[in-house]
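Researcher: Please predict.
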Amino acid sequence: MRPLRFLVPGTSGRFRCGGLQVELQTARLTASIVPTEVVTYRRKEPGRPYLADLLRQERAPGSALWIVSWGFDVPRQLRLLRGRAVAYHAHSTGYGFDLPAGVPVLAVSRNTLGYWGNRAPRNPLFLVPNAIDASWGDDDRVADPALVARRPIDVLVQARKSSAYVLQQLVPALRAQGLRVEVQSGWVDDLVGLFRSAKVYLYDSADYWRSEGLSEGFGLPPLEALASGCVVFSSVNHALADFLDPGAVGHQIGFGTLQADLERIIAAAADPGRWQADPAQCNRLLSMFSEQELRYRWAEALKSIDQHWDRLSSLTPPLRNPSPASLEAMRILSKLRSLTSRWRGRSVL
């Protein structure tokens, strides 16, 4: 198979975020399948290849499969990589661009898969969810209700992406009831340790993504919280609906009234065992996102994408998606035919 090159803007400083960590983790995972390297394109970094340098040094098509992922940067990257094998690792949706014919999509969630299944139905599509790092599930004691009940943090909230409702109404109300609520902001080196110190985890990203005009691409934090034994209260927007079954695996936040949220979260902090996800159901869910399972999915997807680009390189033309204009023309023509048929039927009578 072709070696992989994951394109990221940079790997430190202002580029450090959850999306970057996921992409770097994915690159580490695929490195066990095929030679993989991380390439930066906004900033040169010591010891890493730089996109502009590689494009000058290597004539198209080259030997690598390029993986692009960075939202608003994707259209420009696809133009720069024209004539080379490329695939789109699709996280959030709603950026508004269309993909060139033949560019495969590696969707991280069913929500994202459905978006591109509608927008690019003739491009090769694959479902490869993000993997939970092994460090989140290497201790069987994390879900023990008795141990969870002794954790020092009653409620954990991450400030980024949290709604004004959570930060300005729910958190003060919970603190007024005597609960210890930790609002985490900024970078945390030991995120696993932080999650394993909390009984309840709140995640409410719906307002954030609506304000951005984008979608929750995968929703890794609630999944990591489940792996840490936390009781999860979450919005169920976009890809979160892939795995959050309200009342079974997690619980909806914003449950009609502030009082309803207060009552349920206070009860969960007092007795986590009664509110935790069903162990068997949770284990089945987490196993779907294990590195072992995702390594297999990536291997199968990459094999198929490699064959796809072999076909294209032999000058087999890719299928093309119908344009919005052609679809509208088809709709109008169909309507005209229907009206004509009705008129003819009436004239016979």
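Model: The radius of gyration is 24 Å.
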